[in-house]
């Protein structure tokens, strides 16, 4: 059984034999001991204001969690205790609720502890989901930027190759002096294929054989890069 001790100072001189009635009466009234005695005589072991009681136990009932839409906290507490079938063991005051037996309070505490655990697990699940979505959005944004950058590098390389080798037919050496631009890593194999196409073109041009050279953009599509 829970209990507590109230200490009263009988005098100001710390004498074990001096008892000041007025001073003790003032302390008893100030500490609310008279009210405690009246409540205990009425048979109620626990009392609490409606807002504080509702704040502590509102997660027990679906009608009060997370917020109720009833006219007052008193009505919300009545609904809560009726759902728990404890309304026969309580009394409703003007500003406070009174519980007769400690068993009712212990049962409320057990239900509250169970619900708090479930609420914590739910909040953890929501927060972990939020973090996962944030990481996914960052990874997706990074992937989109990476893909756009790769497309930009590929297009820049293709345009530069096309610009440098655009007029090779009108050159005396058919473009042998033209320096190949540095390709991005993803186009290393594509550069080898382009050089092979150009070498075949150069050999056939040297032999004065007719040839039909496709554009580099069409070759890029054929390689599916």
Key words describing this protein structure:
three-stranded antiparallel β-sheet, rod-shaped, ATP-binding, mainly alpha, 5% strand, 225 residues, single chain, Kinesin_motor_dom_sf
Structure in words:
The chain has 225 residues and is mainly alpha-helical. It has seven helices and three strands, in the order ααβααββααα. It has helices spanning 21-30, 33-42, 50-57, 73-84, 102-164, 188-206, 216-223, and strands at 46-49, 90-92, 96-99. Strands 1-3-2 form a three-stranded antiparallel β-sheet. Helix 3 (50-57) crosses helix 4. The model is unreliable at 208-214 (pLDDT under 50).
Describe what is shown at a glance:
Residues 1-113 form the Myosin motor domain. The chain has helices spanning 21-30, 33-42, 50-57, 73-84, 102-164, 188-206, 216-223; strands at residues 46-49, 90-92, 96-99.
Helix content: 55-70%
Integer-rounded radius of gyration: 43 Å
* Rounded average pLDDT: 78
Largest sheet: 3 strands, antiparallel
Could you list the spans in which at least 5 consecutive residues all have pLDDT below 50? 208-214
Number of helices: 7
Number of E-type strands: 3
The 3D shape can be described as rod-shaped
Read across the widest sheet, the strand sequence of neighbours is 1-3-2
Q: Class by helix and strand content?
A: mainly alpha
Hey, roughly how much beta strand do the residues contain? under 5%
Distance between the termini: 79 Å
Domain Myosin motor: 1-113
Keywords: Actin-binding, ATP-binding, Cytoplasm, Endosome, Motor protein, Myosin, Nucleotide-binding, Protein transport, Repeat, Transport
InterPro entries: IQ_motif_EF-hand-BS (IPR000048), Kinesin_motor_dom_sf (IPR036961), Myosin_head_motor_dom-like (IPR001609), P-loop_NTPase (IPR027417)
Pfam family, one: Myosin_head
């Amino acid at each position: 059984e829970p209990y507590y001790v109230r200490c009263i100072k009988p005098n100001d001189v710390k004498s074990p034999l001096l008892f000041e009635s007025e001073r003790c009466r003032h302390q008893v009234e100030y500490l609310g001991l008279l009210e405690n005695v009246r409540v205990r005589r009425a048979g109620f072991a626990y009392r609490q204001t409606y807002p504080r009681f509702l704040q502590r136990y509102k997660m027990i009932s679906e009608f009060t969690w997370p917020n109720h839409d009833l006219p007052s906290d008193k009505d919300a507490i009545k609904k809560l205790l009726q759902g728990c079938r404890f309304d026969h063991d309580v009394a409703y005051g003007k500003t406070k609720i009174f519980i007769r037996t400690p068993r009712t309070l212990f049962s409320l505490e057990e239900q509250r502890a169970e619900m708090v655990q479930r609420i914590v697990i739910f909040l953890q699940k929501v927060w972990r989901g939020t973090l996962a979505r944030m990481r996914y959005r960052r990874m997706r944004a990074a992937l989109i930027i990476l893909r756009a950058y790769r497309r930009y590098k590929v297009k820049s390389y293709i345009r530069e190759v096309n610009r440098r080798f655009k007029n090779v037919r009108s050159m005396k050496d058919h473009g042998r002096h033209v320096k190949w631009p540095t390709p991005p890593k993803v186009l290393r194999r594509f550069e080898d294929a382009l050089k092979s196409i150009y070498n075949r073109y150069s050999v056939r041009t040297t032999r004065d054989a007719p040839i039909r050279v496709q554009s580099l953009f069409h070759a890029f599509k054929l390689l599916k890069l």
